[in-house]
Each structure stands twice: as C-alpha cells, then as structure tokens.
Design a protein that fits this description.
443 residues; alpha+beta; Peptidoglycan synthesis regulatory factor (PBP3), Domain 2; Beta-lactamase; 12 helices
C-alpha cells in the first residue's frame, strides 16, 4: 500500500537541524502505512545579477610613484573583456573547459568538454593511476626498480634525465612523471609493467573505459603526439576524480612543487600550487596542436573542485586563466548539506515487528551545490515498499531517497534501516493479523 505525504521545508532546512529533525519526527508520527515522503522547496538556479559599472569619462593618469600591473597581466585582463562563451558557466579563453564539484556531481563549467582533443602530458595521469593501482594491490612497491632502456633515454620533450641502463625506483619515477613531467620516466614505467609502451597504452585505454572515460584513446604513456590519440576535458576530470578518491595515500605526490634528480632541480609546471589557495594537483600539458592545458584540483573548507582546460596560448595564460576559473568556482557557488550521514528521513511502519516503526536513514551525507547567496530548495522523495516485514536488520537497504533540484536534475541515495527490528512473538503475530483482517489498517 502506498501513501503520499507532503511537507514544505523552507531554506532554513539546511542550517536549523534541530527544527528539521523535529519536523520530520512529527511527520513520521502521523504515518500509519509507509511509502512516499516528499519535502518540497524552491531553488533558483540563476546566478546573482552583476551591476554594470560605468566607464570613467577619461582615462586617469597614474599618480607619481604608483605601481602599475605588469604587461602580461594587462594583456591578460584585456583578453578577458570579451570572452568566448561556454555552454555552461562563464566564458573562458580555453578552447575546452570542464569544472565539476565531485561531491555533488554538479557541472559548473562546460565548454566543448566532450569534443575530442589531444591529451598532451595530461595523459600521464593515466600512467600514474595504473602505477597507484599496482602499488595498492601489492604487485608493486615504492622501492621496486625498473631499468632505463635506450628508447626511454632518447625521449624528447620534458625529461627526468635518466641514465641509460640505470635502475630507478618506482617512487623516483612517480616524482619524475608528476613533478618533472618526464617523458623518459613514462617509457620506463610502461616497459617495466607491460613489456612495451604499445602494450601499456592498450592497458591505459582499457582502464580508461572501465573508469567511464568513454571518449579517450591512448597511444603512448606520456601524451607525446601520436595519430589517433585523443581524450576530452570531461574524461580527464573523471580520471582526476578517480585518482583522488581511489588512492588518497599516493595522491600527495601531485602537490610537490619541485624535485631534484641527478643533480638537476626542476619546478612543477603546475603554477597553481603556488598562486591559488587549496591547489593540491594535478597535471599540466602542452603540444603544438592542442595548446597549453591543465587538469587542476583544489580544496577549500572541505569542498573540492576539479577543473580541466586545454587550448590556451602560453604557460602564463594557462596559469592565469586556470586560477581565474578556479577562484570563480569557489566564489560563485557553494555546497549545503541537506542530510548528514545517519540522518533519519522517515520512520516507516513495520509489519509483524516487535516495534511498530523503523527509522530509515541516509548512510552518507547529501550535499547540494547552488549559486552563492541562493539557499537550496530541494524536493525530497522517500520511496519504499511498506509496511516493511520483520525481522529487519540494521543497515539493510529498504528504499531510495530521490532528491530533485529546480533545474530538473535528480540524485538518488539509498535508504537503510536505522535499527534492528525483531519479529514479534506468535501471540502478537496472531493478534495483529486478526486485527488486520477484521479492521484493516484503520485500527
């Protein structure tokens, strides 16, 4: 049997938890049979209007002794006055751009993010992902060593400057790939794990498909230009997210700002590690065909954003534009907790149980991303077949919470039994069944 119970929860839902819990408890108390619970509210997906500033009547002269912005910053500011539009979010100088809040799966910026592009050195993130995978599985250790082949030693572009025939530890190779963007180190890893770079590239592509990177093909381990090698900004964001989520114990290597190998000190090309607060990865890239690109992640106050751009014209423009977009993402959007992990969504009726009701809880926190200054207004629907027959084991999935946003997007989370409910004794079961068949659920 199914009932529909509605409740309007005002924007204070996310901040006044005590009042919210009380409201849900009172609502649950009037239910005599379980099924669908809805909490309505309203969300405005539009950004805050920005006031237009009137230009000065004439260009003011700088005061004596005043400093002016460097020429590179002036030219960059001029470029950003009339930016090419994006399909989602603000305009950007990048040909391809994708920004996502991985905790809520909210896309904040999308510009040709599904259009194929060359991965350049951002392909190295997949090489590193596979190394992390081998380490986590115990098939590889940080002090394992691989030999440098002639092919690896002869690689051009950015290098770790490995010596022919030397044995290099996996940890050094990881740093050489992440911090120094060493193409030679990538070949050493590929040959060490798969015998040949070609076989390793096939493994990279296969793993990419398994991770959900549906529009990516790798042809080498470093992103060196190769016909038929391509990816998308979205796919690289997927890879960045999986790297952070799957291997937090190794992700720390992406935050290293410089490293010295073979008496040669090199700086990490990811300038955001120094100029943008909270940045802790990931990888830059550049080819003549693809331009300058970067996959970036930053975390502030527990909230993480992932950004991928490609097709910029210089290292300076890449750093400035990536930093500008990341600052915009944190400034113009925010996350609000709708449910904390373990919060009770509804008390569901129980059939033939020692207790009449069982709390249904959300096992993980639920957050919603909205424009800054616009309180979230989610519509929450709890779906389950009720009454739930006893015995019930705590943690058993018994339903689904569907959260709908004003833009039509829906997110589903499992509902679990929040307590054990044993089956009532024989006498109790007989009495309950007699009452049910004689009087129905109105008794």
């Amino acid at each position: 049997m199914v009932m529909l119970v509605s409740l309007r929860i005002e924007p204070r839902f996310a901040t006044n938890r005590a009042l919210t819990a009380l409201t849900l408890s009172l609502l649950a108390g009037v239910l005599s049979v379980g099924a669908t619970f809805e909490a309505y509210a309203q969300q405005d997906p539009q950004r805050r209007p920005q006031q237009q500033q009137k230009p000065p009547a004439s260009k003011p002269k700088p005061q004596q002794g005043a400093t002016t912005a460097p020429k590179s910053e002036k030219s960059f500011a001029a470029k950003t006055e009339g930016l090419p539009p994006s399909q989602v979010g603000i305009g950007t100088l990048a040909r391809h751009a994708f920004m996502v809040d991985p905790q809520t799966s909210t896309v904040l910026l999308f510009k040709d993010a599904e259009v194929p592009m060359v991965p350049s050195s951002m392909a190295k993130m997949m090489t590193i992902y596979i190394v992390f995978e081998e380490l986590a599985a115990g098939r590889l250790k940080l002090d394992s060593r691989f030999r440098v082949s002639e092919r690896a030693r002869n690689m051009g572009g950015s290098r770790m400057f490995l010596e022919l025939g030397s044995d290099v530890s996996v940890e050094d190779l990881i740093k050489g790939i992440i911090v120094l963007s060493g193409n030679d180190a990538c070949v050493v890893i590929a040959e060490g794990l798969s015998g040949t770079e070609e076989a390793f590239a096939e493994r990279m592509t296969k793993r990419a498909r398994e991770l959900g990177m549906t529009r990516t093909v790798f042809k080498d381990a470093s992103g060196w230009p190769y016909d038929g090698q391509y990816t998308t900004a979205r796919d690289l964001a997927v890879l960045a997210d999986r790297t952070i989520e799957d291997y937090p114990q190794y992700y720390r290597y992406y935050a290293e700002q410089n490293w010295t190998y073979n008496n040669i000190r090199q700086e990490n090309r990811n300038r955001l590690l120094k100029i943008t607060a909270g940045t802790d990865g990931l990888k830059t890239g550049h080819t003549e065909e693809g331009g300058y690109g970067q996959a970036t992640s930053a975390v502030r106050d527990g909230r993480r954003l992932i950004l991928v751009v490609n097709g910029l014209t210089s290292m300076a423009e890449r750093a400035q534009e990536t930093s500008r977009l990341m600052e915009w993402g944190f400034r113009e959007s925010t996350n609000t907790t709708v449910f904390r992990a373990g919060d009770v969504v509804i008390d569901a009726p129980v059939w033939l149980g020692a207790q009449e009701k069982v709390p249904l809880i959300i096992p993980k926190a639920v957050q919603i991303t909205t424009p800054t200054g616009h309180p979230p207004s989610p519509r929450v629907v709890a779906r389950f077949e009720g009454p739930i027959p006893a015995p019930i084991v705590k943690g058993t999935k018994v339903g689904t919470a569907v959260i709908s946003l004003a833009d039509g997007k829906t997110i589903e989370y499992p509902l679990e039994a929040g307590a054990d409910v044993p089956r009532m004794g024989v006498v109790g079961r007989v009495g309950t069944m007699i009452k049910h068949y004689l009087f129905g659920w109105l008794s």
